[in-house]
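hey all, quick one before standup. I had two proteins in the batch that finished overnight and I want to keep them in one place so we stop losing track of which output belongs to which input. First protein below, input sequence then structure tokens straight from the run.
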Amino acid sequence: MYVPDIFGKTPQAFQVCDKLAAAGFWVAFPDVFRGKAWPLEKFPPPDRQELMEWIGGYPFEGRVKPDIACALALLRENGVERFGIVGFCWGGKMSTLSSQDAEVFRATASAHPSFVTVEDAALVNCPILLLPSKDEADLTPFIDAVKARGVEASQEKFDDMHHGWVAARGDWKDPKQQARATEAIQLFVSFFTKHLKGE
């Protein structure tokens, strides 16, 4: 399951989905924004309050979770039995919140997650992998809090990358960014292979 950043259906998003599919995973990408994602040209926002109000229009319980449920139903119709979820930026918060249902998701992951708090650690009930950039706050307290509950948690820091490099704000024409994005995607593939394809 792929949950995008606030920019929604971008070329980078589809490339990540394609790479996960090429690794042998079924990938669902719910259009939670209904084609009305935040415009990339308006980032950074001239008015942060406007952005936060827009984000508030897409709550997990009322909007995102039902869309994920629909996507899960479609995957089940196609014979998929084990599920993981990966989110980017804002989608990282959504994937983290989704991980509370360990009967559905066996693994959750995120690149450059936004809005993830130490308090969210109490909700994580399946293995989690985070790939923060140099721009994210220190996620070590979150990781430690998840581990303290006996749940597998890890992070790989990309201190040479900016927020969004594996999603819409990534310039994959730049060889370094492309290489680091490819490395991040491979970490996701290995993580999901372990938890979804292993016994």
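OK second protein, same deal, sequence then tokens:
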Amino acid sequence: MESRRLAILCSHLNPAAPYPARDSILRVSDCNSSGEEKVESSNLQNDCVFCKIVRGESPCLKLYEDDMCLCILDTSPLIHGHSLIIPKLHYPTLEETPPSVVAAMCSKVPLISNAIVKATDSDSFNLLVNNGAAAGQVIFHTHIHIIPRKEHDCLWTSESLHRHTMKLDKEASELASRVREQLCRRLPEEQLVQPS
């Protein structure tokens, strides 16, 4: 246990790559156990189960770790091998997570998911982010679920639902326009798709 804490502490003191710039708007927790540089915020981060895991204060079964994120087995799995990729810094939602952190997490998906699929003798996997309470997010520390799947495992009840073909009508066109309008507020003009 002591060597594990030392390894985590060393990864914080001497990371292989710099952490992303800290935006004062974001609620960021260093998740470090030294207590030297605390970010002022609510006590939610002190109570965040993922922050406690990163600090070495809560047990976990770690599958992978680098300077930006770690992957652990979910303690309440939907299926054998259900795992979580979590950033080492505290971001409550995907919108509040810097793109560089999301990219670091996502870049590990092929490596980790392949290992999980092989280790569980699965056929494939689902990649899932529950973002916000209405979407089922329970722990408000951004994380990605890797859920190994086997044919006919009947994990999702929605798999039995019949999907409907989208009608290319006025309602669909208006939805696309509203989404593009929201994107215009956030993206440089050269990245936007012009309606055809």
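Flagging for whoever picks this up: The beta strands are 62-65, 69-73, 83-87, 124-128, 144-149. The helical segments are 2-13, 44-47, 49-55, 99-107, 109-119, 170-184.
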